[in-house]
Amino acid sequence: MGYVAGETILDDEFNAFVASSSDPYGFNHFAGTGATVYGLGQAAIPTVAGGTTTIAAAQWNSLLAGIDNIANHTNDTMTARTAVTAGDTIAIKSAVAADLATLAASVAAGSPNATAISAGSELQSSRSGTRYAGSHIVEHSITFSNANEARFFFNAGGKIRVNLTRVGNGGGSATDKDDSVDEMITAMGDFDIASLASTRSGTTETLTTDGLAIGFQDVTTSYQTVFLLTQANGTYTSMTLKGEIKGNATQGSTTNVTIKMTLTDADGGDILYTSGNLSSIDQFENFIGQTDFATKLMLPTTAQGLNPVYTLSGSAETSNTTA
């Protein structure tokens, strides 16, 4: 059976390359709608009717072009090919199968090598109501139009990013406690929630709870702790910073992700100075300056081949508590 454009070839093999929904996966399963950890929401390639249908050069070219298009986004190296015309030898079956498997694996991993990713604008920013000696707890939610679009976003390399900043001092000038907060901010860095795992760009302080293997695909309807950092090097070694996530449904049906961030100063020796004993010391000398948790998206773009790309339908601050 010759692999030559215009000759009768194995239509069922072409259809498997295009539409197989089991391993080895076809193009439409990882690049089209897909399911579970597969799917990018791209246009599906048509299959051909059964029997001894002749596979035209244009049909093969649409598959090869689709492979290269997705590879441009995932930054995977594909077998070198040129478009075929009637009479040209069509790409060897094993090379096509190997390239499809490579792309399916990349999509299932959340396109970790994609570089066509752009930081979106700040969605939510939650500042502590006052300077405090206790905790600042914030919940932000990200909502997608449907479960498919949520999956397409994360599979293409999209992430939810959370940052923490300190926007004021505890006392008249930065105190040891403020410095401790700054160290926790550095330790967290960019907190990114991706498809299969989460990361923090910081490396310092003690990672007391390590749930960084939890990503979008792992959400349940109850909060799971992604990380708990405990200060190791500063003056206030009881200070902690925790990140948690949950969804509105289990994997496959999730349309909403909620992130809960908690900065806690567990030092029980801090009090608010009163007017009778100030002695030129700020009332909030032993407090933390105001802190701010902000959320944005790291967005897949069309710069390297994907079109369309998917993003959120809305976001909200669901709680902001200073105690």
Number of strands: 12
Give the domain tally.
2
Low-confidence stretches: none
Largest sheet: 6 strands, antiparallel
Give a verbal description of the structure:
There is one protein chain. The protein has 323 residues and is of the alpha+beta class. The radius of gyration is 26 Å and the shape is elongated. It folds into 2 domains: 11-108, no CATH class; 117-322, no CATH class. The strands form 2 sheets. Strands 1, 2, 4, 5, 6 and 11 form a 6-stranded antiparallel sheet that branches. A hairpin with an 8-residue loop joins β9 (240-247) and β10. The protein has 6 helices and 12 strands.
Overview features:
elongated; six-stranded antiparallel sheet; 2 domains; about 20% helix; about 325 residues; alpha+beta
What's a concise summary of this model?
The chain is built from six helices and twelve strands.
Topology readout:
Elements: H1 11-19, H2 27-31, H3 57-74, H4 93-108, E1 117-119, E2 124-127, E3 135-143, H5 147-155, E4 159-166, H6 176-188, E5 191-193, E6 198-200, E7 206-210, E8 224-230, E9 240-247, E10 256-264, E11 291-300, E12 314-322
Antiparallel strand pairs: 1-11, 2-11, 3-10, 3-12, 4-5, 4-11, 5-6, 7-8, 8-9, 9-10
Helix pairs in contact: 3-4
